[in-house]
Design a protein that fits this description.
Blueprint (H helix, E strand, L loop, with lengths): L1 E15 L5 E11 L2 H11 L13 E9 L11 E10 L5 E5 L6 H11 L12 E7 L18
Antiparallel strand pairs: 1-2, 1-3, 4-5, 4-6
Length: 152
């Protein structure tokens, strides 16, 4: 059966690297069982340090359909498994690819096996990871954030 979940993230373009490529600041803020729960988390985060210094459109909600082999009685009690690929190049430019969530870790591992030999994943295969997300649970950043001054 197909069930829908809502991913909440925070970020936007914050500049360009030496090659002229866009640079983004990005925070993963969790997966939620309903859009109203994701919006409620925006209400929580929007007044915290760091978050409050940016416009509300930095918060993004993305809807994902996830196939489960069994009936899910309560979406807030499931875990989702997210495959990601994250590495820095020689200029410390941060590259991130996040795949849609899977219902099981086995499904995420199967996808990892299919892509690990393809570009760009094959260049940094050890940077392919699977993260378990507990739906409707806190993921961090409850105190907000700040940017370190990297120019000194």
């Amino acid at each position: 059966m197909l069930y829908y979940f809502f991913n909440l993230s925070f970020g936007d373009e914050v500049g360009q690297n030496k090659k002229g490529e866009a640079m983004y600041s990005f925070f993963e803020l969790g997966y939620y069982s309903t859009i109203s729960k994701a919006k409620a988390r925006i209400s929580f985060y929007k007044n915290l340090p760091g978050f409050k210094d940016h416009p509300l459109d930095f918060f993004k909600i993305k809807k994902y359909g996830v196939k489960f082999k069994t009936t899910v009685e309560d979406k807030s009690k499931v875990d989702l498994f997210v495959l990601g690929h994250h590495y820095w190049d020689e200029d410390f430019f941060d590259y991130v690819v996040i795949f849609p969530p899977y219902a099981t870790e086995i499904e995420a591992k199967e996808k990892m096996e299919k892509i690990k030999d393809k570009f760009p994943f094959c260049d940094y295969p050890e940077e392919l990871t699977i993260v378990k997300h507990e739906v409707d649970r806190h993921v961090g950043w409850e105190e907000g954030f700040f940017y370190a001054d990297l120019e000194d």
